[in-house]
Write a structure and sequence with these properties.
The protein is α+β, with helices and mostly antiparallel strands. The protein has a single domain, classed as capsid protein of prophage fold (2-Layer Sandwich). The chain contains 7 helices and 16 strands. It is globular. It starts with 8 loop residues before the first helix and ends with a strand.
Length: 332
């Protein structure tokens, strides 16, 4: 085995664990991770309780009240297992790493391969999280078909009566106010965030500008033109989501698809009650240490044909325990 540290199993696994998630992976950077020892996950779906206590008299038996409304859901963990053969340039540096300079080149070449495969996994989990907070994950792959419904009620999937591309500021404010009230009533939480694409946010800005209404303070305008986001507008932080992933077509070409589509807005409170998490399971690879949780990596050399390969594996699944803290609105 070439004498470089990244090909040592323990160092390789530690390196993979330390590769930072790209900043544009908004949910993967924010959603907490939990652990299950099983290849499946069972979670409670909690509905808000809006009943109130009733009066009683001293020295009498307490009133028996029903338990908080809880449903239970179950799903198998999604399993990722991919490998790649190192590129010829990587193999070259692995063979030539007799000097410090060559060894450094070999390390960098291996790290490049590791980072590339790692990014594919990040893209997949980011996609599952965006699908989950819109109420459903549907997978139709060659080896796996899955359809998980997170039980969002129909009222939490509204459509604006007037498309926002043609709406007045008053109509937009009325929509947002009604949707915030719905989240407060059903989920018992304030709506703190809105996620949407730049094109969709543009409907709001244009509606106010075209009607001569000062939408933002100078500070908010500066933030909008600098980052594309708006903090505090209508009592929420508005975050643009323009990142995309590539989908291979039948002809071998790739089509870019956004994690969040235009004309969709996700209103939510991601903080109160920990409404969403990414549950990670044990590694299923025989070479993984006992009880290993998270992203497992290994590399080995094939003798026929001669090639070095790198494998990455992970077991996980996103769950939503408080569906009433999310609302996905169609505005166009």
């Amino acid at each position: 085995m070439p004498d470089i540290s990244l090909l040592e199993p323990a160092i390789l696994r530690e390196t993979v664990q330390k590769i930072p998630v790209a900043q544009d992976k908004i949910l993967l950077n924010r959603v907490p991770k939990t652990v299950t020892p099983y290849p499946y996950v069972i979670w409670d779906v909690v509905r808000g309780a809006r009943t109130m206590a009733t009066v009683n008299v001293p020295n009498s038996e307490a009133h028996i009240v029903p338990r908080l409304g809880v449903e239970q859901e179950r799903a198998g963990l999604l399993y990722l297992r991919e490998k790649k053969v190192f590129q010829p340039t990587t193999i070259h540096w692995l063979k030539a790493q007799g000097t410090i300079s060559n060894r450094e080149n070999a390390e960098q070449a291996v790290l490049k391969e590791v980072t590339d495969l790692n990014a594919r996994f990040d893209n997949f989990w980011e996609w599952t999280l965006w699908q989950a907070i819109q109420g459903r994950i549907v997978i139709d792959a060659v080896d796996v078909q899955a359809d998980v419904d997170f039980k969002f009620s129909a009222s939490h999937k509204p459509t604006a009566s007037t498309p926002w591309a043609n709406a007045t500021p008053q109509q937009i404010i009325a929509n947002v106010t009604a949707w915030k009230q719905l989240l407060l009533r059903d989920g018992n939480v304030d709506t703190t965030e809105a996620f949407l694409t730049t094109a969709t946010l543009g409907y709001i800005v244009n509606a106010f500008v075209n009607n001569g209404i000062n939408l933002m303070t100078d500070a908010l305008k500066s933030e909008y033109y600098r980052t594309g986001n708006i903090t505090g507008f209508l009592g929420m932080n508005w975050t643009t989501v323009d990142t995309a992933y590539d989908v291979r077509q039948a002809d071998g070409s790739f089509n870019q698809v956004g994690f969040l589509a235009d004309n969709k807005i996700i209103f939510s409170n991601l903080t109160a009650n920990n409404p969403i998490s990414l549950v990670q399971g044990l590694s299923a690879d025989d070479d993984a240490p006992d009880g290993f949780v998270g992203r497992f990596a290994k590399t080995w050399k094939e003798k026929d044909p001669s090639a070095r390969q790198y494998l990455l594996e992970e077991h996980a699944f996103p769950i939503i325990t408080r569906p009433e803290q999310f609302l996905i609105a169609t505005v166009g």
